[in-house]
Automatic annotation (TrEMBL):
Belongs to the ABC-4 integral membrane protein family. FtsX subfamily. Residues 197-307 form the ABC3 transporter permease C-terminal domain. Coiled coil: none annotated. InterPro entries: ABC3_permease_C, FtsX, FtsX_ECD, FtsX_proteobact-type. The keyword Glycoprotein does not apply. This is Cell division protein FtsX.
Length: 324
């Protein structure tokens, strides 16, 4: 018999099915793919019910995310104020401009001072005239009543520097906004804590929404689940389509929440930019970057997966037949 002749008989028949039998890992991958496609199909089969669940989850996600984005923009808006930390030292009226320049040079050489700017009485008067438009009233005053001002930018501890500047014999008044900045920092920390609390509470609410939706879906497929359990299917095998269903709810809700927040940003950006320009600022409202957006969608999907997993595991334990 030729070596290339096809084999026949029981040995060949036994080899053929074994060659076509899929691997255990391949079957596992196939079932994951089938579960994902089946979950998307169930969403499309009930569009209105799915849209309601996704909308509720999106609102629950958008509220803390919107607060988080607002806090990020507030921190960025006050960033220049936090970094400048300028201290204004108003010198006594009798201090001459030459002495003010010497004092500015001496302060600039100190290690705890970053920079010093001298504003002479003439410069202050010109700035007042340009800002207020009270040319006639200023002309009536006659002599310039404004003192020299040293604008000091700290290079270290601003509180200690402000105290040392106030002790200078030439200093008449030291204006420092450290207390205001400390209060602003406290409000920002409170806002971050509030955003975290809201995220936790509304995240639990979104998880419960997904869980209840998946529970209703399991109830509708009770007979199918019961047949699979009687055939010996594991809980993981039965639970997998429902997990993907919860993940789909979460991903779509995350995308919808981002869309709502992006639309809100576009609606508010022109008005806020115009308001900032009126104060001489080029501040622009910023939303979530690509990395944050991807993290939000993944996090929402994980949230939906967890909600479906908790409810499905509890339901399957109740419906699993007991041995008699």
């Amino acid at each position: 018999m030729s070596a290339n002749a096809p084999q026949t008989g029981p040995r060949a028949a036994a080899k053929a099915p074994a060659a076509r039998r899929p691997s255990r890992f391949g079957a596992w991958i196939d079932h994951h793919a089938f579960s994902l496609v089946a979950s998307v199909g169930r969403l499309l089969a009930k569009p209105w019910a799915a849209a309601l669940t996704i909308g509720v989850m999106a609102v629950a996600l958008a509220l803390p995310l919107g607060l988080w984005a607002a806090l990020g923009n507030v921190e960025r808006f006050v960033g220049d104020v936090q970094e400048a930390r300028e201290i204004s030292v108003f010198l006594k009226p009798e201090v001459a401009v030459e002495r003010a320049r010497e004092l500015a040079a001496a302060l600039a050489s100190r290690g705890d001072v970053g920079a010093v700017e001298l504003r002479t009485p003439e410069q202050g008067l010109e700035a007042l005239r340009a800002a207020s438009g009270l040319d006639e009233a200023i002309a009536v005053i006659g002599d310039n009543p404004l003192p020299s001002v040293l604008v000091v930018r700290p290079g270290g501890d601003e509180l200690a520097l402000a105290d040392s500047l106030a002790a200078l014999p030439e200093a008449d008044l030291v204006q420092h906004d450290a207390v205001w900045r400390q209060r602003l920092d406290s409000w920002l920390r409170f806002g971050v804590r509030l955003a975290l609390v809201l995220a936790l509470l509304l995240g639990i609410g979104a998880l419960l929404v997904v869980g209840n939706t998946v529970r209703l879906d399991i109830q509708q497929r009770r007979e199918e689940v019961s047949v699979l359990q009687q055939l010996g299917a594991t809980d993981g095998f039965i639970r997998r389509p429902f997990l993907y269903l919860g993940a789909c709810y979460g991903v779509l809700a995350g995308l919808l929440a981002l869309a709502v927040l992006t639309a809100t940003e576009w609606a508010l950006r022109p008005a806020l930019a115009e308001l900032a320009r009126s104060y001489g600022s080029e501040f622009m409202l910023q939303g979530f970057g690509l990395t944050h957006a991807i993290a939000i969608v993944i996090g929402a999907g994980v949230l939906g997966w967890l909600g479906a997993g908790l409810v499905t595991g509890h339901t399957l334990r109740q419906t699993r037949p007991t041995d008699t």
